[in-house]
Each structure stands twice: as structure tokens, then as C-alpha cells.
Amino acid sequence: MTPRRKKRLLLVLLMIFGVSSATALALKAFDQNMMFFYSPTEINAGKAPENRDFRIGGLVVQGSVVRSEKSLMVKFDLTDTKEVITVQYAGILPDLFREGQGIIARGQLNDGVINAVEVLAKHDENYMPPEIADAVATAKEAN
Amino acid sequence: MMQWFHRMASPAWFYRFSGKLIPFLILTFTPLLIIGLYGGLVTAPSDYQQGDAFRIIYVHVPAAWMSLFIYIVMAVYAVITLIWRIKLAEILLISSAPVGVGFTILALATGSLWGKPMWGTWWSWDARLTSELLLLFLYLGVIGLYRAIEEKRTASRFVSILVLVGTVNIPIIHYSVEWWNTLHQGSTITLTEKPSMHIDMLIPLLMMAIAFKVFYGISLLIQARAELVEREFNSRWVRELVEENSDG
């Protein structure tokens, strides 16, 4: 490699290094805002913002879903397997909403209850045919 | 080795060689696409959670992979352009950008169509979705900057710097689902771990991924040949080529 090309290579490496460190620092500064949702544990520890919408993510607790008979109002508990928080929501739920499913709700905290304005379902990265999913579930119960 | 490298980078040689390569690539691409699509949309079993809706993965994931892959390839051409000033690298760099735009739009659009029924929303400003949108703007910025500068060799150098600056976005897109809580799920297929997908679903997905890669090869070569002739229309080899073709 000629000295001129070596110099150019050095400049390119320096530029990549500079831009990367600048981005890393910026992301570090934004860390809290980059979080898409808070977990029930974080909310119960008082980490969630007050008087402002934020998102909560967790699994719907088995048997906790209560639907109102007169309206679309639905109440359910979310857990991160440690702490539990109650969410109420009036609206149409996504197809994947069910007990045990991971969901993300957006709303405000009022007296320990989240008044959600939006409920989204989160699915995992596992894909398998239904028969195999059943087999996995039975194997888990057997243990 | 270096000699072979220089011969390959000569515009006339590249033009002839790529012309012969394109038909073979098309012959590879077509069966791969047909079998991959048939496998994904018809023979693969439906998902335990998402039913048949998960089948959009066969377009969404390969397109998203390509959007990252093409950018990384462009970054390699950018380094070659800046250090060795090889003209062919400049041409391959700028010819990749429109293909990258296409795949990024495809990934974003199919993701949106998938998100509405499954998540319950078309769009959400989570880290994965936002960084992928940023990638689209980077691609468009590259094309815009190249077009804005008259002198194409100068333009290529500026574009290379923009591409290299934008490279920081690539690891951010890839690791966004691990570093932060996102609505988007984690990666199903990684290089280090066993894929969390049933094998009958996986094979068509990988076929589609290869088909998309070959498609990139085809469109890149076609685009690059056109760009090459346009830039070199005054040179001897292009004039010879025109004479050859008008004789026959």
C-alpha cells in the first residue's frame, strides 16, 4: 500500500471511530427515552413518569381478564412474573390478546391502576406448527 | 492477485463479463423464487399463535435482511472508493442504492401490514422501526447527494463519506431488539444460536433469502452497466462496443 493510501485509510478509520463514539454517547444519553415500555416492577418502584402517557409491557395474568357487560371496558392484570399491575381499557383489543400473552398498553397511572388509551399485542420470535406448540406445552406440564 | 484485481476493475472487462453473468443469475433466481414462495405460502405449516398471517415473514424478513446487507456492501465499496479510487467501486456503490431503497420500502410496508392484525397498529415509534426508517432516509440521501453534484468522481467521494457515516445505524438496527424494550420481537434466526423456528417453516425462508440476494445481483449488474456506459460514453471501449453492435 502506498503511503498516500495508508493516510487515506487512517482518515477513514478515524472518521468511523469518531462517528461511532459520538453515536454511542448520544444513545447513552437517551437511554431512558429509548425504552419502549416499563415493566410492572419498574412502575411499582416509582420509575414511571407521572401525569404523562407511558407504556407498560407484561404478560396478561391467567384468569384476570374481566369484561364489562354493558361496554367495551375490560380490566386485566399485567405481570413481569414478579410484580402485578392492573390495567383498564375501553376499546377493541388486538387478535393476539389473550391470557398469558405479552402485551403493551399505553396510558397514565391513576391510584395504582393504568388507564390505557391503546393496547398492543407483542408476539415472540418463535414460530411453530400448532401440534408442536401443544406438545411443548404438555411436556412442560409433565415436568 | 493484484493484477487480477485490476483487470476485474477495468470497465470494458466488467461490461463484457456482467453481460454473460446476468442470464445465469436469472436462471438461478426464478426457480428459487417460485419454490421458495410456494413453500412459504402453501406447504409450510401455519403458526400456533398467528395462524396464516405469519406467512408475510417470507417477504418481510428477507427484504429486511437485504436492506442491511446492501448497505454493508455499499460501505465496502465506499472504503475502496475513498482509498483506492477505483471507478468501478464508485459505480457499484451508487448502483446499489436504488435496490436498497426498494428492499427497505418492502420491509417497512410488509411489516406495517403484519403489525396491524398482530400488534394492533400500523406503525409505532419503537427502536427497530425507527432505525429502519432512518435507513430508508440514508439510502435516499445517498441518491440525492450523488445526483446533486455534477462531477461524478467528486460526487462519489462525498457519497462514500455519507455512506460510511451512516454505517453506525446498521448495528443499531440489528441490536435494537436486544438493547431496548421494543414492540418488535427478537431475532428468530441468528448466526450463533439454533433458529427458533420449525424446520419446515425455515427452509422456504432461507430459499427466499437466497432468491432476494440473487435478485440484488441481477439489478445491481443491470444498473451498473447502464451507469458505466453513461459515464464512459466518450471512451474507446464504448465506441468499439457500439460499432460491434451496429455491424452485427
Summary of the model, kept short:
The complex is a heterodimer of chains A (143) and B (248). With 143 residues, chain A is of the alpha+beta class.
Unreliable stretches covering 5 or more consecutive residues of chain A: none
In the CATH scheme, the class of the largest domain in chain A would be Mainly Beta
Whole-number count of domains of chain B: 1
Please provide the count of β strands of chain B. Answer: 0
Order of helical and strand elements of chain B: HHHHHHHHH
Structural class of chain A: alpha+beta
Structural features, described:
- The complex is a heterodimer of chains A (143) and B (248).
- By secondary structure, chain A is of the alpha+beta class.
- Chain A folds into two domains: 30 residues; 87 residues, Nucleic acid-binding proteins (OB fold (Dihydrolipoamide Acetyltransferase, E2P), Beta Barrel).
- Helix content of chain A is 34%, strand content 29%.
- Chain A contains four helices and six strands.
- In chain A, strands 1-3-4-6-5 form a five-stranded mixed β-barrel.
- Chain A is extended, with a radius of gyration of 23 Å.
- The termini of chain A are far apart.
- The model of chain A has no long low-confidence stretch (mean pLDDT 85).
- The longest helix of chain B has 33 residues.
- Chain B is mainly alpha-helical and 248 residues long.
- Helices cover 78% and strands 0% of the residues of chain B.
- The model of chain B has no long low-confidence stretch (mean pLDDT 91).
- Chain B has a single domain, classed as Four Helix Bundle (Hemerythrin (Met), subunit A) (Up-down Bundle), CATH 1.20.120.
- Chains A and B meet through helix 1, strand 6 and helix 4 of A and helix 3 and helix 6 of B.
